[in-house]
């Protein structure tokens, strides 16, 4: 179902298109009755005033919305910084929305950004089944998340990254390496690569998915309990913060890293490697991811007729590399 247009509001209120525009922009004298009729039509049709105002005046806001799971994670903080820098170089400003890994909050941000006249949206969250993306009017680009065939996805080569991490643990002697991730689903290429690599070596894969919305304290408890119940000699963590939790657990429980427990993380943000220089991790090209996401969105905004070309260009995954430290 298409979104209501200005003409629909005018017809429902029994006034002209110009009158609706004047009501929405609070211009000139208008009777209380006309204002009431337009307001009721807007509410009944579920129409976004600012979005329509944008189409009326034919101007761009030069604003872009970025929705992230949490800037507390160094990966997303650095990604947001790179996206903002690239947008700024092209004359755009960025509105940062931290959904705190909450699907309902993400949907609210998506609605708010469109209502406030952003020219486009970049989303890097991982909540599933969030309503609104399929109805969005603003151009959208996704980072490491598949939302639909018409939305470009910017990502690094997660399948290669998963093989690098798992293969490295096996090469270092692990025979019961486990994988810890937020969610385990068919689109999780890191999990798929972990399972494939383990089975290729005749080993049994074991996966813990703690859930994106799980609070940090509870997440840590789940991970520690699971590790206690599993005789693992290696851990492949889907992000560096989780890898650092595993390292702390190993210290508390007397596991010797890397003698009896080998640990590999994922992301390789500057902040994580500064905090733990010895962490073995799969490094994503965060700067390149952010720059490509911003560039792909700007192409969608400024040259919509070239959308298919920009989408296909965005689909090519960026390369990753294994950064080897002393934890494996």
Helix run count: 13
CATH topology-level fold name of the largest domain: Rossmann fold
Taken in chain order, the helices and strands follow as HHHHEHEHEEEHEHEHEHEHEHHE
The biggest sheet amounts to: 6 strands, mixed
Average pLDDT across residues?
Answer: 89
- What is the class of the largest domain in the CATH system? Alpha Beta
CATH architecture descriptor text of the largest domain? 3-Layer(aba) Sandwich
Class inferred from helices and paired strands:
alpha/beta
Tell me the overall shape. Answer: elongated
What is the fourth-level CATH superfamily of the largest domain?
A: Response regulator
Radius of gyration: 24 Å
Strand content: 5-15%
Annotation, overall tally of beta strands? 11
Helix content: 40-55%
CA distance, first residue to last residue? 53 Å
Number of domains: 3
Pfam family, one: Peripla_BP_3
GO molecular function: DNA binding
Domain HTH lacI-type: 4-58
Keywords: DNA-binding, Repressor, Transcription, Transcription regulation
Write the layout of secondary structure elements.
Layout lengths: L5 H8 L3 H9 L6 H14 L3 H9 L5 E6 L5 H16 L3 E6 L4 H13 L4 E4 L16 E4 L9 E2 L3 H14 L5 E5 L7 H12 L6 E3 L6 H14 L4 E4 L2 H14 L8 E6 L2 H6 L4 E4 L2 H17 L4 H9 L5 E3 L5
Parallel strand pairs: 1-2, 1-3, 3-4, 4-5, 6-7, 6-8, 8-9, 9-10
Antiparallel strand pairs: 10-11
Helix pairs in contact: 1-2, 1-3, 5-12, 7-8, 12-13
Organism: Microbacterium aurantiacum
Protein name: LacI family DNA-binding transcriptional regulator
GO molecular function: DNA binding
């Amino acid at each position: 179902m298409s979104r209501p247009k200005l003409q629909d509001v005018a017809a429902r209120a029994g006034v002209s298109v110009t009158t609706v525009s004047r009501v929405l922009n609070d211009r000139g004298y208008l009777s209380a009755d006309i204002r009431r009729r337009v307001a009721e039509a807007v509410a009944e049709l579920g129409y976004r005033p600012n979005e329509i105002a944008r189409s009326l005046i034919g101007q761009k806001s030069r604003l872009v919305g970025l929705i992230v799971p949490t800037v507390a994670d160094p990966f997303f903080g650095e990604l947001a910084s790179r996206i903002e820098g690239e947008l700024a170089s092209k004359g755009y400003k960025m509105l940062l929305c931290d959904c705190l890994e909450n699907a309902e909050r993400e949907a609210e941000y998506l609605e708010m950004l469109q209502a406030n006249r952003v020219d486009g949206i970049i989303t890097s969250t991982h909540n599933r089944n969030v309503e609104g993306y399929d109805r969005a009017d603003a151009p959208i680009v996704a980072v490491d998340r598949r939302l639909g065939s018409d939305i470009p996805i910017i990502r690094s080569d997660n399948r290669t990254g998963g093989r690098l991490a798992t293969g490295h643990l096996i090469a270092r002697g692990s025979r019961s390496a486990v994988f810890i991730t937020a969610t385990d689903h068919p689109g999780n290429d890191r999990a798929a690569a972990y399972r494939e690599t383990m089975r290729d070596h005749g080993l049994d894969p074991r996966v813990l998915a703690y859930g994106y919305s799980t609070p940090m304290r509870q997440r840590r408890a789940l991970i520690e309990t699971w590790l206690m119940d599993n005789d693992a000699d290696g851990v492949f963590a889907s992000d560096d913060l989780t890898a650092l939790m595993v390292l702390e657990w190993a210290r508390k429980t007397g596991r010797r890293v890397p003698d009896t427990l080998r640990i590999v993380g994922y992301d390789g943000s500057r902040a994580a490697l500064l905090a733990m220089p010895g962490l073995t991790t799969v490094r994503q090209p965060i700067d390149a991811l952010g720059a490509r996401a911003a560039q792909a969105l700007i192409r969608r905004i400024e040259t919509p007729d070239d959308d298919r070309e920009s989408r296909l260009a965005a689909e090519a995954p960026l390369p990753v590399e294994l950064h080897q430290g002393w934890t494996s």
